[in-house]
Design a protein that fits this description.
The complex is a heterodimer of chains A (about 200) and B (about 220). Chain A has about 200 residues and is mainly α. Chain A contains 7 helices and 4 strands, in the order H-H-H-H-H-E-E-E-E-H-H. Among the domains of chain A are: about 50 residues, no CATH class; about 30 residues, no CATH class; about 30 residues, no CATH class. Chain B is an all-alpha fold.
Chain lengths: ~200, ~220
């Protein structure tokens, strides 16, 4: 027989809770080892002694104080719990406003950033022709020049799909303007190359 | 005096399991009704429930940790946990099993914490049989004062002394069975272990207790 099973049988024998089947198994064990019965009787006596000597209930010292202390803690627990609930409810009551407030904040941040980034001078507001009438609008980009004589206009379609920058005040490019010679790159080109190119142009 | 005679006389003198409310004559509100009221936030119902069960909880904790002051504090912790967990308590569960389960957790948390806090220090209360080398002396050899010796000769003290030598699991199992009268399944629920483990612990605890009491008897 397995050790676990014999332990169970011994425990149940002490508690007088053996089933008829288990009683048969136990009788067989006792027949094998007669000294076992005396040992089990001693276990039963020890268990009875425990039941008799150790009380199941012992009032804690100062029982009233025990209760009052405990109830104070319980009241504190209730108060902190209701505070937490209240705070939770307060936050939850504004839950509906989070999405619109967020959207509004985004729009405000966008406009504020745009205004801050715009310089006080240079460039010009854009003009948009809408049914033959020009309108100044803020949304189009600002064009900057290091020459005060230059002015720019940004023209955009009403749908914003098409836009053009018109720069006024630029000097017209002469017909004989030689890009190769005025290029800063030319200085760095080898002489043989320049000569070959000049020959080719001629 | 013969052990059995003592037991019989004790039984006749004071029946075990007397509750503080016993004999009051007033019809008691059943636990499940009090629990329902508690779940609705009735603190007076909770106080009644505490008064009804505090003795059992205190006795169990006291038997487990063998320290009155700490047992008092831990019993408070148990009931505060009960209050917090009551909203989750299901009516189909047995209240006493649930209460002892919380008590079990509180006691074991305390034992664990104490073991950590006193790591490196010698604490006799925490030494279990397995921690002591075989053949080593486990008690001081000096002769006890006559009055203490007389006190120790009492059967209850001898049982308490024997219980103190058991490890926490064995002690709790035997206390739940013999003192609180729980059945095997309830013990398994309280201690969160299998039925086989309960049987094994009960077997070894009884055997050890019987051996220790026989040895003490032999000395008398």
């Amino acid at each position: 027989m397995k050790k676990e099973k014999t332990e169970e049988l011994f425990v149940k024998w002490v508690d007088d809770q053996l089933s008829p089947e288990e009683q048969v198994q136990m009788d067989a064990l006792l027949a094998e080892e007669p000294s076992l019965e005396a040992e089990l009787y001693q276990c039963r006596n020890a268990a009875d002694a425990m039941r008799a000597e150790i009380p199941a209930s012992v009032e804690p010292p100062y029982g009233d104080f025990f209760n009052s202390q405990l109830m104070r803690k319980v009241d504190h627990e209730i108060a902190s719990h209701s505070r937490a609930k209240k705070a939770e409810r307060w936050w939850q009551s504004f839950q509906w406003a989070w999405a619109p407030a967020g959207a509004l904040a985004l729009v405000l941040a966008f406009f504020a950033g745009h205004r801050v980034a715009k310089p006080a001078s240079s460039g010009e507001f854009a003009a948009v022709p809408v049914t033959g009438q020009l309108q100044l609008i803020d949304e189009l980009p600002t064009v900057y020049f290091n020459d005060d004589q230059l002015k720019a206009r940004v023209i955009a379609g009403a749908d914003g799909e098409v836009s053009a920058i018109v720069v006024d005040g630029l000097t017209a490019i002469r017909d004989d303007f030689d890009i190769v010679t005025v290029s800063t790159k030319e200085e760095k080109l080898p002489d043989s190359y320049t000569r070959a190119e000049a020959t080719r142009f001629r | 005096m013969n052990l059995l005679k003592r037991i019989t006389s004790r039984h006749l003198m004071s029946p075990a399991g007397d509750s503080p409310d016993a004999g009051a004559g007033e019809p008691e509100v059943p636990d499940h009704q009090l629990i329902k009221s508690c779940q609705g936030g009735d603190t007076r119902a909770f106080e009644t429930l505490v008064t009804r069960h505090r003795g059992k909880v205190y006795a169990m904790v006291q038997n487990m940790i063998k320290n009155e002051a700490d047992a008092w504090d831990l019993s408070q912790v148990v009931f505060l946990k009960v209050w917090k967990a009551l909203p989750k308590f299901e009516a189909r569960a047995k209240f006493s099993t649930w209460l002892y389960r919380i008590t079990h957790n509180v006691v074991y948390d305390w034992l664990r914490k104490r073991k950590i806090d006193s790591a490196g220090e010698l604490d006799d209360g925490l030494l279990s049989e397995g921690d002591i080398a075989a053949g080593s002396r486990t008690s001081p050899s000096k002769v006890a004062r006559p009055d203490i010796a007389l006190e120790n000769s009492e059967l209850g003290d001898r049982i308490n002394a024997a219980l103190a030598t058991l490890n926490a699991e064995h002690r709790e199992t035997i206390l739940l069975r013999e003192v609180q009268g729980f059945d095997y399944k309830e013990i398994a629920k309280v201690m969160d272990c299998s039925l086989g483990t309960v049987m094994s612990r009960l077997y070894y605890a009884r055997k050890k207790l019987q051996t220790l009491l026989s040895d003490e008897k032999g000395k008398d």
